Each structure stands twice: as structure tokens, then as C-alpha cells.
Amino acid sequence: MSGHFLENTLVYLGAAVLCVPVAKKLGLGSVLGYLLAGMIIGPYAFGFIGEEGDDILHIAEFGVVIMLFLIGLELEPKAFWRMRKQVLGLGGWQLAVTTLLFWPLAVLVLNLHWTAALALSLALGMSSTALVLQNMKEQGRMNTEAGKSAFAVLLFQDIAVIPMLALLPLLASNPAVAAGSESGLLAGLNAWGQAALVLASIVGVVLVGRLVVGKVLQWVAATRIRELFVATALLLVVGVAVLMQAVGLSAALGAFLAGVVLANSEYRHELESDLDPFKGLLLGLFFMAVGASINFDLLQKSWLQVLLLVLGVMVIKGLVLGSIGRFYRFGTDQNLVFSFGLMQVGEFAFVLLAFIGQLGLLGDQSLQLFTAVTALTMTLTPLFGLFNERILLPRLGTPEAVAEPDVPEEQNEVIIAGFGHYGSTVGRLLRANGVQATILDYDADQVELLRKMGFKVYYGDVTRPDLLELAGAEKAKILISAIPHLETNVLLAEQIHKHFPHLRFYARSRNRFDAYELMELGVQHLYRETLDTSVRMGVEVLQALGHRAHSAYRSGQDFLRYDQAAMSQLALKKRDMKAYISSVRAAIAWQEEMLLADKEHNLSAHDHSWDSDAIRRNVLGEAPTS
Questions:
Q1: What is the value of pTM for the model shown?
Q2: pLDDT tens digits for 87-121?
Q3: Weakest-pLDDT range from 99-108, 267-276, 283-292, 476-485
Q4: Chain-centre distance of CA 84, in angstroms?
Q5: How far is Cα 311 from Cα 369, in angstroms, rounded to an integer?
Q6: Complete edge-to-edge strand list for the sheet that includes strand 414-417
Q7: Structural domains of the chain sorted by starting position, each given as residue range(s) with its CATH number in brackets
Q8: The dihedral formed by the CA atoms of 307, 146, 85 and 519, expressed in degrees to the nearest 10
Q9: Least confident stretch, 165-169, 308-312, 353-357
Q10: Pick from 391, 447, 389: which is nearest to 418 by CA?
Q11: What is the mean pLDDT of residues 292-297?
């Protein structure tokens, strides 16, 4: 091991130990501490690290690779599928609108060719996964609306880098340059061959991960040598990263894919616990590398241009994010946290800018300029976040993002989670009948308003087992979730099953597909938002048309019973859309036939003795069990 490497290691660790505690003490966060440490030791400041910067670049790249592996490891395919609307909606709109705004500005203001402007706009549209997630976790915001939405946007961006890397060579003005940028397995292949090889590599990684990796991990785990288990995981990460580089994709994306493959493994939690001690250090080294990469000579010569670019990029991204948050009806505090958190340019911009330089789309001076802009936006993000937390949020009266959970002072037989229009209706009905409930809500604005209206409501995240325990879940009989978000209800159902199995869980669902997801988790008491009101409307329309009130009411109740009876069978077909549609048509026909027969014979659903065999036979078209 060379003395040069040991000296650099000593410098990195010493700077981190000195700067990070000071930054934390000042309330700036560890991320800004690492960035400042990198600036101080970098080649453009005090020069403790040489100007060649090779070690810095390697450390930065390895930090991103490990970070994305751990992110992928935490991303279960089922969880991704549940939040697909957030990922595609929030993430798609953010990247599309930001790119479309930056593109003409880059042409008009920077006088770039449209291809170079588009490539640059795609890079500037990215936000920092490492920075945002680190900040959100340190501040305990990952389970807030802002945290979940930010994760959805970042996940979309991480995935979007794959088509971006495929698109950039098509924008190169010189085909020879684009072709020359290819190396390894892609060299000499035409566009279709390159696409086929890339797709085959990704499919191969997924198949090997599903069929081979689990058995290998089981074999290694049997040795009971923890270091060997960690080494095997790193071997997988590095192997996939090398393969992705060989086919022209990013090593970081390969690591992310490796993590996703391992997310289904039964060894996932062991891998997380083994690698967790390295995670903070590696991310810290990455942020130090970002700080050290800032070219202060360039900043001194073009400080006004750099300042305008940095502020312009951050303001535009912040306004786009704020507009999207308003469209999705975020609370003011959550929208501010969401917007300020993602307004920087992210680490993937370094990867994209380097590739853009290889393709000849931007010159060296422009690349240095936007590398500095990217690093400075990441450096300023914690400061903007501090401004939001200390100045904006208190003055806007929205303490949700920083408020501490309340400690409930009462314990009742019923706990209600979420006290908006839906939950308050349930709670008022219970209270009118002498049933007191402990009410929890995670919207600080709503909590404050309800307290002014005379309700005793406690602030806190209901998915936290410790808060549920303080709310009396050990002694309570029923927990009512009036929360509309499927992801929260799924997590709540899992926590109840794990920590409070005696609790009967009554859950609100937006539609039948959300209900199907909860039914898979064993939730029996499900209430779709619009079902009862739409049936009540139908009943009143029947009365208006001359039907007897009693008959119309009974028909509505029978409709509900038949619909609920068919739900459990239709849930079995929800993943096969063709079979599901066929079963829905059969269920509708069966329901209408039953309701008509009831009317003709003056019967109700209570008078029928149909069982699960009869439902399967009529709804799913299956033969009865013997």
C-alpha cells in the first residue's frame, strides 16, 4: 500500500472528523459538513489532495455505486408496484417539465445547439438521491408525505438514467465521435445490436439473480462466516457493475439493479445490517469528493455567471416542484419540504456530463462550468433547507415537517388514525353513542384546526409501533384507519399483525383494487370510500321513480352484501386482467340476477343460503369443490 494512498486516507478522515461535528453543532447537518470538508482539502483550496484528483473521482464513483445498491436493496418489487402511480406521476412530471423549461433557456441564454441544450437539460433535471435521502432520514421525514413523494421522484430519476444514456449518443453531431465512445462488447455493433445486448444483459442479471444468487447466498450463509457473506454481496455488486460498464451503461445503475434483485432474497435484512456501518462513511466520502471537485479558480473568474446559473437552476426546479406539489394537493409545509429538498442537481449529473463530454456535445470549459454548478447546488441545498425550516415553516404556521409526536394522555377501546372528513364522521358517530376514541393524525395543520374545534387529537405517525403502544394499542380492541393512502394502510396492517395481533383493523380504501391489496394481508374489515354513498344515491333515485322506500332500501342493502361476497373471489383474479374482466362480467350478471329474483319473490340476501362454492360457481365459473 503506497504512502500516497495512506496520506490521502488520513486527510479525508481527519477533515471529516473535524468538520462534520461542527456542522451538526451549528444545525447545518452532516451532509454540508462533508461538503465543506471536501472544499477545504480539495486541490482548489488548501491543496491537501493533489490536482490530478484520480483518487477523488474513484471514491466518488464507488460511493454512488454502494449507495444505489443499498437503495435497490430496500426496494421490494411489490412496494414499487404499489407506489407506481407516485413514481410515474410525480417523477415523470418533474423530469419532463424541468427538461422542457431548461431546453429553450439553454438555447437562448447559453447559445447552445439544440442537441447540446437537450443533453444538458436532462442532466440538470436530475436531483441528488444521496443528498436528499440522507437529509430526509436524518430529519425523520421519510414517512411524511414530502419524504415519500421525494423518494418517488428520485426513484423515477434513477431509472430514467438508463434511457438517457441510450439517447445521448443519438444527439451527438458527429457519428464518429458517438461510435468512438463505445468500448468493449458494444464496439462494432449497430444500434439494434447495441439495444439487444443491453436488454439481454439486464434480463440476464435478473434471471441469474432469481435463479442463482439465492442459492449462492444460502451456501455462503451456511459457513457462518459474516465477512464472507459481505464479500459475496460486494462481489455481486462489482460483478454487475462491471457488466453494465461493458455494455455501455453506468456502474451505479448496475449496482442499483443488483440491489433490486436481492430485495426479494430472504437474506435482504442481513445484508442491510452488514453493510449499514459502511453506508454513512461511503456517502460521506462521496460528498467530500463533490466538495473537492469545485474549481475555485473558475468560480473566481466567472463568479457572476456561476452565481446566476446556480440560483436560476435551483429557483426553476423549486418552482416546478412546488407547482407539482400544489397539483397533488400537498399541505403547505410538506410542499415546501418537498420543493426545497429536491431543488439541487444530483450526482447522476456528473455521470451524464462526463458522457456528454465524451460525445463532444459540450466543450471542456462548459463541462467544468456545469460541474461546478452541480456541486454548488448540492452544497447550497442544506442551507436552503435550513432557511425553510428556521424561517419559512414557523412563519407559515405549518410545523408538521419538524414537529415531535404527541404522547397520548388517554387509552380507549378504539383508536382512529386519520381525522379528516372521513375519520371525523366516524369519530362523531361513535362519540354520539358514548364511545370514546383516541385520535391520531399526521397532518399538523389538521391537528391544530381540530383542536380549535374542540376535538382531542394527537399528532404523530400512526405506522410507528412505539406511538401505537403509547396510544393504548395493547389494551384497545379496534383500530380504525381513515387514511386514504394505500401505502400507509399496508404498512399499518403489517405493524398491527406483527406487534398487536389482537387488534381488529377497520380500514378505509379508495377503490376495490386498494381493497384487494389489503385483503392479501388478511385485512377483513374494508370500507371503500364511494360504495355506500353511491348505493344510497341509487336507493333514493329508485324512491324518486316511485319504488317503495322499504323495497328500495332492502335492494340497496342486498346489493352491498352481494358485492362484498363477490369481492373475495374477484381478488384471486386481480393479477390476470383478462381473467379478472371475465369474472367481473360474470359477477355483475350474477348480482343482477339475484337482485331481480329477490324482488320477484320478495326475498332478501339474508334469505339465501349461498356459500363460497356457489359464489365461485357463479362468479368465477369454477366447478364446486367436492
A1: 0.58
A2: 888 999 999 999 999 999 999 988 888 999 999 99
A3: 267-276
A4: 9
A5: 14
A6: 457-459, 437-441, 414-417, 478-481, 504-509, 525-528
A7: 16-401 (1.20.1530.20), 403-529 (3.40.50.720), 531-626 (no CATH)
A8: 160
A9: 165-169
A10: 447
A11: 76
Closest to 286 in 3D by CA, of 12, 90, 74, 573? 12
Residue 409: all three cell numbers together: 394522555
Give the residue from 530, 534, 477, 533 showing the smallest Cα distance to 506: 477
Q: How far is CA 616 from the centre of its chain?
A: 38
Q: What is the pLDDT of residues 176-219, one digit of tens each?
A: 444 444 455 555 555 566 667 767 777 777 777 777 777 787 78
DSSP 8-state class, residue 213: I
Mean pLDDT across 234-245: 77
Residues, the chain, total?
Answer: 626
**Beta-sheet pairing, 504-509 with 478-481:** parallel
Confidence at residue 103, expressed as pLDDT on a 0 to 100 scale: 93
45 or 339: which leads in pLDDT: 339
- Evaluate whether 144 touches 341 at the Cβ level (below 8 Å): no
Compute the distance between CA of residue 264 and CA of residue 415 in angstroms, rounded to an integer. Answer: 33
Grid cell digits, residue 237: 455488486
Q: With residue 100 as reference, give the H or E element that holds it.
A: helix 92-109
Cell for 561? 352484501
Per DSSP, the residues of 237-257 read HHHHHHHHHHTTS-HHHHHHH
Q: What angle do CA 461, 466, 469 make, to 5 degrees?
A: 105
User: Residue with C-alpha cell 489532495?
Assistant: 49
Cα–Cα distance, 14 to 550 (Å, whole number): 81
**CA torsion, points 343, 348, 350, 356, in degrees to nearest 10?**
-110
